[in-house]
Write a sequence for this structure.
């Protein structure tokens, strides 16, 4: 029974020494001296703020993309015991002792290091020689810009890692297709493709283009499968469903999960609350939630409310009035009604309170039981402090003469009767009998007499002059075709009015609300709001020029660089600066590939085949992966209206670098026919690679920031006039 113990248990394993050696070299190149400098380096000042907010569980929105990359950086801080207490206000600021610098920079460095063996494996899966694959990995290893970007708390190395992982996983899956379909390894690599794609998109939206490239490739391969008569209809359906599950359903589910975790972690009120809706703000701990938690849910006749404009861009504002009137005549000579001003005010104020009144009754308090206001009901809005009624009439608005002036009515005993009836229209209603709800309902106020819609025009236009205290204009929009958020309002603060006397009511309006009913948004409601493009992508002002910003055309020839860090006293500095030999070779390889491809296509059109069919298919597939990866990660930047930096080019550069050994192997195999030519070609490759290593060593002091260089040595690095090498004045 125990006879198997008489023989030793033997485990055999195949170890790819090349892969192990490349991984070790990648780790050394990215992890060496990772804590240096112990100071804020370039965009660490930006991402560090979000890491601190994660540590403190404070809500934020970042315009650079989805939250997964930020969460990975925060994970490094969490593992290092970071408490979030550091003021990220200046590049070059020394880190305090509570900041775990090594831990914060670890994950980007690991991702950058693993890109080296990934490059090797991609070339192997494309069926190129191990020599070519080794060359690709060494080029990634010695590319100075990739080293610099991966050694700090930045996202590009993580993005590139997941992109390469997705490409490798799909290639492995595809190569298993013919002989091991639906096997365990087949499923593993297919599922990993979808997971890696979702992670890449979760880091930055730019990865969407690589994801679309892989989807298109998978679609093309499946199209070829349809023509395979050996596959049954059931088998084709199973293949289709497997790809749909792994490449579409799972990535979508993971994308949602990133936001679920993000929102679960960030449950406290934060710096970006103001761009979110009242309902979203009220779901966060602190801030607005302290004011609104437990307010009455249903708005009733007699309710005291503040009305926030839903648009909230460029700033949030509330319907507001004060005792001042519109000037009798405006600066352009037009006349006004001289009624009490109504504006949209971007700050909380007692003059933001309004009372919802039943036109058929005089009381300004909530009855018992309360009578809720429903969609389609007619109301009057009474300004809480001045007790004047919200009114509009056929008088031109101060800044928008095509719209009606909105005011609080003052009876001057002239032929201008009050027109103060408004119909409540709940925009997001589920039925025509819906009750107007606090925070949740988005409503339009339609003027009964003129059908004008109450609109915060100043939110998307100019503010009023000095006589209007620079507050935002409110108008009655007569031609209300379509839906615009500037016409939509929601109740933010709400109480049931109890005081009929004006003096008692003023005291009531100044007091905080205290109720017992809470309202929570679902995850999907929060997710949908976060996806609104103007909130995700336009939080920062992209119109401002940065000292180191550049155009996409500058990247090809590396006519620009970025100074990441400068030592306060010595000449030590860190730059995002590429390996000139590699960048020039990558451009040359792309040009050679394009020219040869056109030549082959023309010749094949004439039925002249210069290379075997399997070599042609290899050439095309490599171009689809490497050339296609470069194109989808580079060309979209020409269509983007945003501030661009050199590091945006690094994902495209990575694919372009992979093209170099593809072209070199092709030239050696098919154009160098004689032994002499092959020997000369090999010698040229050795000389070229020596130049790559020489450039790497030359610029490594500004890649790693050490050793500090003298004035003469710094000037010697000024290879291009457009580079900004920092020379400290003596």
């Amino acid at each position: 029974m125990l006879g198997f113990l008489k023989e030793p248990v033997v485990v055999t394993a195949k170890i790819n020494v090349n892969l192990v050696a490349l991984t070790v070299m990648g780790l050394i190149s990215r992890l060496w001296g990772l804590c240096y400098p112990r100071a804020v380096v370039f965009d660490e000042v930006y991402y560090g703020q979000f890491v601190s907010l994660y540590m403190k569980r404070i809500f934020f929105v970042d315009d650079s993309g989805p939250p997964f990359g930020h969460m990975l950086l925060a994970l490094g801080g969490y593992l290092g015991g970071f408490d979030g207490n550091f003021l990220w206000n200046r590049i070059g600021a020394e880190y305090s002792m509570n900041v775990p610098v090594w831990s914060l920079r670890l994950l980007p460095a690991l991702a950058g290091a693993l890109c080296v063996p990934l490059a090797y494996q991609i070339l192997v899966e494309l069926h190129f020689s191990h020599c070519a694959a080794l060359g690709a990995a060494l080029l990634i290893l010695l590319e100075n810009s990739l080293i610099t970007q991966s050694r700090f708390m930045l996202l590009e190395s993580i993005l590139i890692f997941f992109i390469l992982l997705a490409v490798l996983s799909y290639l492995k899956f595809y190569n298993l297709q013919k002989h091991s379909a639906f096997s365990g390894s087949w499923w593993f690599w297919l599922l990993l493709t979808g997971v890696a794609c979702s992670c890449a998109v979760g880091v930055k939206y730019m990865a969407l283009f690589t994801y679309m490239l892989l989807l298109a490739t998978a679609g093309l391969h499946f199209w070829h499968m349809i023509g395979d008569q050996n596959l049954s209809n059931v088998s084709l359906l199973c293949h289709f469903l497997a790809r749909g599950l792994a490449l579409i359903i799972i990535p979508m589910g993971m994308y949602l999960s990133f936001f679920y975790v993000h929102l679960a972690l960030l449950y406290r009120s934060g710096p970006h609350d103001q761009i979110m809706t009242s309902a979203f703000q009220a779901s966060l701990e602190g801030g607005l939630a302290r004011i609104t938690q437990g307010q009455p849910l249903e708005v009733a006749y007699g309710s005291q409310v503040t009305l926030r404009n839903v648009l909230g861009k460029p700033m949030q504002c509330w319907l507001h009035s004060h005792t001042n009137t519109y000037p009798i005549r405006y600066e352009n000579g037009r006349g006004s009604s001289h009624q009490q001003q109504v504006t949209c005010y971007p700050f909380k104020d007692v003059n933001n309170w309004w009372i919802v009144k039943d036109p058929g009754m005089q009381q300004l308090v909530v009855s018992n039981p309360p009578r809720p206001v429903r969609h389609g009901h007619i109301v009057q809005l009474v300004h809480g402090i001045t007790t004047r009624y919200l009114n509009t009439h056929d008088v031109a608005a101060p800044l928008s003469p095509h719209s009606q002036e909105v005011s609080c009515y003052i009876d001057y005993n002239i032929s201008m009767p009050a027109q103060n009836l408004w119909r409540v229209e709940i925009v997001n209603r589920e039925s025509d009998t819906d009750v107007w709800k606090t925070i949740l309902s988005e409503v339009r106020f339609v003027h009964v007499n003129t059908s004008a819609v109450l609109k915060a025009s100043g939110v998307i236009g100019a503010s009023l002059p000095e006589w209007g205290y620079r507050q935002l204009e409110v108008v009655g929009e007569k031609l209300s075709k379509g839906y615009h958020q500037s016409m939509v309002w929601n109740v933010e603060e709400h109480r049931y009015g109890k005081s009929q006397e004006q003096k008692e009511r003023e005291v009531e309006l100044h007091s905080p609300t205290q109720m017992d009913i809470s309202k929570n948004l679902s995850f999907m409601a929060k997710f949908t709001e976060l996806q609104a493009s103007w909130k995700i992508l336009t939080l920062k002002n992209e119109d401002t020029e940065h000292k180191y910003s550049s155009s996409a055309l500058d990247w090809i020839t590396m006519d620009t660089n970025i100074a990441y860090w400068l030592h306060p006293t010595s000449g030590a500095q860190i730059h995002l600066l590429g390996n000139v030999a590699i960048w020039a070779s990558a451009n040359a390889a792309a040009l050679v590939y394009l020219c040869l491809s056109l030549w082959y296509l023309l010749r094949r059109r004439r039925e002249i085949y210069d290379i075997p069919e399997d070599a042609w298919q290899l050439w095309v597939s490599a171009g689809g992966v490497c050339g296609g990866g470069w194109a989808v990660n580079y060309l979209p930047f020409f269509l983007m209206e945003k501030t661009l930096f050199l590091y945006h080019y690094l994902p495209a550069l990575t694919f372009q670098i992979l093209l170099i050994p593809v072209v070199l192997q092709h030239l050696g195999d098919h154009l160098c026919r004689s032994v002499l030519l092959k020997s000369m070609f090999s010698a040229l490759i050795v000389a070229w690679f020596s130049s790559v290593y020489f450039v790497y060593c030359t610029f490594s002091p500004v890649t790693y920031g050490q050793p500090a260089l003298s004035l003469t040595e710094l000037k010697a690095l000024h290879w291009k006039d457009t580079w900004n090498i920092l020379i400290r004045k003596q």
The chain has a mean pLDDT of 88. The chain has two domains: 17-261+549-717, 294-517. The two ends are 85 Å apart (CA to CA). Residues 17-261+549-717 form one domain.
